Amino acid sequence: MGSQTHQPPQIPVIDLSLEDLKPGSASWLPTCNQIRHALEEYGCFVAKYDQLSPQLSTKLFSQSKDLFELPVETKKQNTSDEPYRGYIGPTKYMPLYESTAIEKATVLEEVHKFMNLMWPDGKDQFCEVVDSYAKLLGALNELTVEMLFESYGLRKHFPSLAASNSHLLRFLKYKQPQDTETTTIRFAAHTDINFATIVHQNDIGGLEVQAKDGTWISVEPQPSHFLIFAGQGMQVWSNDRIKACYHRVKVSAGNGERYSMGLFTFNNGVIQVPEELVDDKHPLLYKPFDSRGYIRFYISSDEAVKLNNPIKAFCGA
Ligand SMILES: O=C(O)CCC(=O)C(=O)O
Ligand SMILES: [Fe+2]
Asked: Entry's SUPFAM superfamilies (predicted)?
């Protein structure tokens, strides 16, 4: 009788650096299918993406550190008409967490506007570094979603979705716990309410994703590794073939400060389940989904947050 070792599940790593990753190339369809399989199984995957170099990552995280060192009054000036889009300081529930964000970050003028607000006298390299970084992550998001659509035979639907996308770039920092407490959850388990998210961790990990069997899988940082999550918008579009990924962040005392980045892709239009994704095994689960209306519903109502399945309450068929 052989002994059985139980291997914890691993998040698939998919190489999206390949130069010929274009429709019609030998690697295109197999990679599209890998993306679909990973998203259907885990709601996420790790993209290896060398186009965003380790040098650019180092420069980006150095700018992020400078940003968080600004006085809190300056950081608070980054406000937004919409909730969760500006500066978020530490709270009772998340005392070590801080973040700030640039809306429409793939547009250079928006990066400029943000820089002028934070550093009225200018800031060396901020705009060029953040602009290159945001554009590369935006391109990684578009490539992933186009390839996912292709794997369902629905690439024709991609341009109209992409035309109403916008990208929010969030800088995140977690201070290390002062006491000797052991590893603690610092960002409670949740799914993202947008369409898709890319998370990039600096040298300190902590991000965990939940597998279908309920186990938590930790995702180790690597300079050219980017974790791509399905959000609730992707869940609706896919008619539940893909489930929004549950994830959380744990931080340990003694590890140092943790920095990460998130590119949140929002769809600002109405998402409709493609008729090709509706059949006897997959009856239609959602009415046309107004993403921004959903965010207003989700944020404005205390009840929505408590609902087991707010998206079904909002637009279930
Ligand atoms: O801090 C991280 O690495 C992830 C944060 C996150 O999940 C979020 O902002 O939605
Ligand atoms: Fe998240």
From this structure: Clavaminate synthase-like
